Amino acid sequence: MTMLSVEGLAVSRGGLPVLEGLDFAVEAGHALVIRGPNGVGKTTLLRTLAGLQPALAGSISIPPESMAYAAHSDGLKSTLSVRENLTFWASVYATHEIEPALERMNLRGLADRAAMSLSAGQKRRLGLARLLVTGRPVWVLDEPTVSLDTASVALFADAVRTHLAGGGTALIATHIDLGLEEARVLDLTPFKAKPPEEGGLKGAFDEAFL
Ligand SMILES: Nc1ncnc2c1ncn2[C@@H]1O[C@H](COP(=O)(O)OP(=O)(O)OP(=O)(O)O)[C@@H](O)[C@H]1O
């Protein structure tokens, strides 16, 4: 069953096209790993899919409300504890169970610590635990393993596997191999928007890619 499909999608940054002509579909139970060199447009694509910025052209088959987006700034409330953060998100998403998320991301021992006192990797684990309480079927993840140690990467990969086994889907921009058998790789390099041949936009275009 196709869970997400994208047709003729073009995305932009700073008003200029970054990627164009994107067509792909992701089935329930499968993941799509988004690859490409720095600056190619991975973050821009994921932000567009998650509804944080408008597409320049094309269509996305499901609404942002079906997706849970996680990026570098995870929207953590710094003065709230780990448990309070998850309880807050569980109420926002009208789900209840935070204990499995605490367990899955190895956060039980940190449950009463304020989010601001966590290390970078621990904050990242809390951000990923948030995904688990959203109850949303499509995870859209921008470099989810940054700051994670090997053990935490393995915990994260397991959480993704469980999500996929439950019929979910994940789109993941990452430079590392997560060892996910259910994942297909999409390299964005061929979809780079062509720079304008000439004219006033050219200078602005070059500037946007510096
Ligand atoms: N605020 C901005 N205004 C204009 N252009 C921007 C802005 N932010 C980023 N860009 C440009 O948009 C392009 C796409 O950036 P994006 O962050 O999507 O790339 P990325 O593939 O996620 O890169 P990385 O692997 O380094 O995270 C880049 O060339 C970048 O320089």
TrEMBL record:
The keyword Lipid metabolism does not apply. The keyword ATP-binding applies. GO terms for molecular function: ATP binding; ATP hydrolysis activity; transmembrane transporter activity. Residues 4-210 form the ABC transporter domain. One of its GO terms (biological process) is cytochrome complex assembly. Keywords: ATP-binding, Cytochrome c-type biogenesis, Membrane, Nucleotide-binding, Translocase, Transport. PANTHER family: ABC TRANSPORTER I FAMILY MEMBER 1 (PTHR43499). This is Cytochrome c biogenesis protein CcmA. It comes from Thioclava atlantica.
